[in-house]
Amino acid sequence: MEHMIQSNEKKNWVIAGLRRNGMLVMRPQKDGSLKYQDEHKEEWCKGMPIGSSRISQDWLKNRMAWIKSGGNQVDEPIWARIEGAKELANLIEWSYTSGFVADEQEVMKLDEVDQPEWVAAGKFQLPLDLRRLLAKREAGMSSEGQEKREKLREKRNQKKLRNDAKKQLDAEEREQIRASLQSKSKHEAMQQIVPSSRTVTPASKANAKKKSHKKGKSKDKLAVKYKKKDEIKKAALALAKKKKADEAEKANAPADAPPLPPPMEEPPEADEAKADESKQPVPPGVFRVVSDMAGMSLFGRQGTVMAIGENEWQIFLDEVSKNAPSKLVWIKHQYLQQIETSQLKKKWEWPQLSLSRVHKKEILIEAGTIGEDVDDQESWDPVEVIGPKCPDGGLEAQTIVFGWLLLQYMSKGKQLGSMDGITMLFPQLLWCLVNEKAEVDHVRGNHWTLMVVDKKSRSIRYYDSLRGSVDETEIGTEAEIQKMHEGCVNMAEEVLSKMLSCECIDEALLNGPPLRRENEKVRQPMMSNMCGHFVLSYMESEMSNHMGYGPASAGHAHGLAFAWHSRLEKMSKQLANEVPKMRKDLELANEKQIQLGKKSLDQMHKQHELAKSRMKKNEELTALMSEAVACLDEKKTIQIDQLPHEYHVARARIVARGVGICSSCRFQSGCLRCDEAKCLAYWMRREHKRTGKPIDAKYQMGKP
């Protein structure tokens, strides 16, 4: 098997065999025509002639007799044969049921018998016995039978016209939606389709009301039903008029010109532009649609190049999408990027959202919503619960951090922890901004944007979902792309200057082009506050590319934004329900620590009494007695080296990690996981509760 595959790759004998048998002769073009593929002019079929000595040339000639004008024209199908086939079946059934057998010796003047309309329209070549049957049935049919047959035919024709009209209306709506989906989302395209209305008379209202009571249907359903019937009826009448006009025009048309020779001969020369296009080599490999300008139905899909046009490439897509069922499409080559499928992971998929109590606690603490110190519960922030609709003021900073932590959790296979090579904000930058009390998350104007500083590719990518124009036709133009919110751009430039001063980046990275939107076409809906949702969708796209799935692997930003709303709605409810449980767990744990402290203090007092009696007798004290005397008499406090191992692990993490990303780090002085002083005070108070030993006043709650 492997030998056959390698042989085909070298000689391409599979396609050569198809060409030899008269296949792959014509190739469809962008304008809908067919082009004859000559082995002397087309690069892909060079050395692959049509036919062979083993195939009859007469058969090959008949095989391609339907092709005319060098492949630019084919015979129109005879649609009347569909109805004629029904009449022919009725004729044979009549012969069988009536038991009629034509007498071959009977002399009948068939030339004088008028042929029915369906025979002439369908261009049927009936054999002699069927012509005898037809003539006998027509001669013996009564006038009532003929009238009944005509009524049935008329009824059938009217039904066919209605069906054709319905198909035409459905096709127009589908075509309108398909064209809109190239530049808009499915929701926006469906909103623009407004069904035509009709005048509702009092009689129709009464009839609709009567039927609604009788059948139990609502008025709205009946109105839609009658509206659809009225549209189909009007379209059927229009089709009937058009059909009669076409038949009249065809009857008055001059005789057809003599047919052109079949394409076995050399086809006519194509124009210079198409000739140049055919000479362009087709690039190998797999290409992916990475620009949102291509539309939601094509974004992120990939395939191989089949043909090269002046500004567009014909791509054969790997998979069929629900919004775009066609696999062969023309796309501007600027929207494509070649990818190495062998070096990329297969597919970015979002796992089922399920959080354990451990992970919920970790997310709440990492986001700065709650703390591990039971004595500091007043600083806890309430969880913003996301409802079915977007919040009026947009997403808060807390929810954006929730989304970022959830993205990390899902990306790492439902495990929490920082991602290698990617962070939400540089710790040094956060420290500078906190010290200067600058707001860095919800930038001026209450609008979320995303700036990605990519040190590996030496580039800065900026995302802004705010519209640069209220005119829908201007969205995606260069002027609209460059027109960004001035306050957001200024804030981004300030952040870059802070990063430079903190030595997070070098000056060479800022010498590139000015900030420009990466999202060229995607914008948040008008009068909406979904900027935070779009920022999270851009984060997911960057994350999927960073993890090796390639560009545009996460999906279209518009669909991701609405998906993020569902995720945040589910996640925020789970976290909000977890907060009272966390509070109860902390209080129970704190009560246990206090009880342990009381027991330890009682033991210390007992050792102190024993120490006093031994000291009077000048006897040697044990270690526990000496410790009790130091704590109770000398007021010796707990020292750092006496703290448990967990404190030293937490301190080492703070030193290595620096400032965190939680809301406490942004707006306050830090939390236990990123402020060394607060971490030390927390562990001192915890050890004091557990052992009953005294601590310095600076570590007590409420002390600076």
Automatic annotation (TrEMBL):
Region feature (Disordered): 138-225, 243-286
Compositional bias segments (type: Polar residues): 193-202
UniProt cross-references to SUPFAM superfamilies, sorted A to Z: Cysteine proteinases (SSF54001)
Keyword Cytoplasm: no
Keyword vocabulary terms for this entry: Hydrolase, Protease
Ranges where the Ubiquitin-like protease family profile domain occurs: 443-543
Pfam families tied to this protein: Peptidase_C48
Transmembrane segments: none
Record field: compositional bias (Pro residues): 256-265
Biased composition (Basic and acidic residues): 138-177
Biased composition (Basic residues): 207-218
Family to which this protein belongs: Belongs to the peptidase C48 family.
Protein name: Ubiquitin-like protease family profile domain-containing protein
Organism: Durusdinium trenchii
